[in-house]
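re: ur question from yesterday

yeah so i grabbed the chain u mentioned. its 198 aa long if i counted rite. heres the sequnce exactly as i have it in my notes:
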Amino acid sequence: MTSSADDRVRGMRGARLRAAVLDATIARIETVGIDDTRVADIARTAGVHETSIYRRWKTRPRLLIDALLTHTEKSVPIPDTGSVRQDLIDFFTDLAAFVSTQTGIAFVRGTVVSDRDPEVEAARKEFWVERIGKAAVILDRGKARGEIADDVDPELVLFTLGGLLHIHVTHIGTVLPAETVLRAVDLALTGIGPRTNS
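ran it thru and got these structure tokens back, copy pasting raw so excuse formatting
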């Protein structure tokens, strides 16, 4: 490694180091796939020492999970269009687009590491609890605007729509079509709309 490269490694700390390593990790995943993504290659791409990576993430699985979770949060933002229907359409359209990528497929199918790894399982659970919690604001805003019933369970709606997407990716092996997203959202809305007194 050259002197200038050494200076780069020494000068990269905290957020800069994390961003460089996570970007390099995603780049490797998208280029060679999860199974062939190695810490040595990530370190070389990011311009850091392997020891710096292991010092921060401890294990390869923890690094892969961190990179995938961070990437997903950027790729699938929580929309705020002023309409619960459009928010749900945009959210699940973005999610469907994400899981059609190599990175997204790897994450949804859980092919990063063995499910027996407790650290990875804990990270996955933490991520989905956080993401569902954040996405629930879509339904909460809909309640406040009177678009959906007050007794609607946001998590149930999101898990129902998310389950459709998951089945397409993991079991059918196809991307969720845009038309199916629209139909699924409209179907959900018929069940969660404002209650009328008969």
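noticed a couple things. The mean pLDDT is 84. also The two ends are 77 Å apart (CA to CA).
anyway ttyl
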